[in-house]
Amino acid sequence: MSADRIFTTPELQRRYSHVDISLLTPKCTLVPEQFFSDASARSLLEGVTALREEDAVSWVRLPELSSVLVFSNSVDESLSRAVAATVLTPSGDPAPVLPEMYYLLRQMGSLEEYNKILASYMDGYLHLVIAQGRSLSLANVFRAPDFTTAQYFIFLAMKRLQLNPELSTIAFRTPLDADAEMSLYRYFKSVIRL
């Protein structure tokens, strides 16, 4: 959807009881609760990604993982903030904009298979979460300029974790074109879109 349609699309002009707005930011890290403090948030994020001085740092707790997701939504875009400002909650507050990694981690528990592989690919970044049972094995963002590179990172992670793609289902939160989906079907038992 182009930016000019934000103010004319009826679905974006209403109030909702619950709104999820995801930003595909590569600037995020998952930190165990015992290693996190409000004062250390910026330095923890700077340990894994380059931050500019003006980049705002936020965090959200994930109690089900005993972790805190530290992130920066400063990725030189304004579309997510514009959508958040037009789609309001019942109290009239703008909807929060959270990183895509947050939604991948939250949806992990909704998958029924033992090997849980969730991904999002857009704008040159692969967001990947892999869990075995209830144990999180990987949560990372990879720079992948094309889908072939994204697949490389998926298969490399699976090989390191000793997971067999032929016995696994991969779930994507972002749309896949027909070629990308068919390419995944050659290796995975199943490909689903959430």
Number of strands: 10
Strand order of the biggest β-sheet: 8-7-6-9-10
- Count of discrete alpha- or pi-helical segments spanning 4 or more residues: 5
Contiguous uncertain segments of 5+ residues: none
Categorize the overall geometry: globular
User: Approximately what portion of the residues adopt beta-strand conformation?
Assistant: 25-35%
Largest sheet: 5 strands, mixed
Class inferred from helices and paired strands: alpha/beta
Quaternary structure of the protein = single chain
Task: Round the Cα radius of gyration to an integer and report it.
Answer: 17 Å
| Percentage of residues in helical conformation | 10-25%
What is this structure's SSE topology?
Elements: E1 21-23, E2 28-32, H1 41-46, E3 58-62, E4 67-71, H2 79-86, E5 97-99, H3 100-107, E6 115-122, E7 125-132, E8 135-143, H4 147-160, E9 169-172, H5 178-185, E10 190-193
Parallel strand pairs: 1-5, 6-9, 9-10
Antiparallel strand pairs: 2-4, 3-4, 6-7, 7-8
In short:
The protein has 194 residues and is an alpha/beta fold. It has helices spanning 41-46, 79-86, 100-107, 147-160, 178-185, and strands at residues 21-23, 28-32, 58-62, 67-71, 97-99, 115-122, 125-132, 135-143, 169-172, 190-193. The relative contact order is 0.14.
